[in-house]
């Protein structure tokens, strides 16, 4: 059974820490970007999410949003699934979209990565 509480590290060295996991599946924590970022000044930013009921499914889907502290104009949404292998090891697989603030609708095409 997969539970999101605790610390998770991404392939690029980013770290997600889920510090509060509520019975309803909602969770709070922080996210610190890894080596993939070119800004060494980024600090841990708050995240808020929701996990599918882990008592109903062994490998729940989840989603969370990070509001970047230093880059108030950035928000990243993650969606994925928690997998448990035969040995009981938990792994998260997720996709993300980063939205950047732009000055006007004409620049909207470049606002999401």
UniProtKB/TrEMBL annotation:
GO molecular function: biotin binding
Keyword Signal: yes
Subcellular location: Secreted
One GO term describing the cellular component: extracellular region
UniProt KW Disulfide bond keyword: yes
Bridged cysteine pairs (disulfide): 2-82
Primary site of residence: secreted
Subunit structure: Homotetramer.
Function statement: Forms a strong non-covalent specific complex with biotin.
PANTHER family on file: AVID PROTEIN-RELATED, AVIDIN-RELATED
Family classification: Belongs to the avidin/streptavidin family.
Protein name: Avidin
Organism expressing this protein natively: Crypturellus undulatus
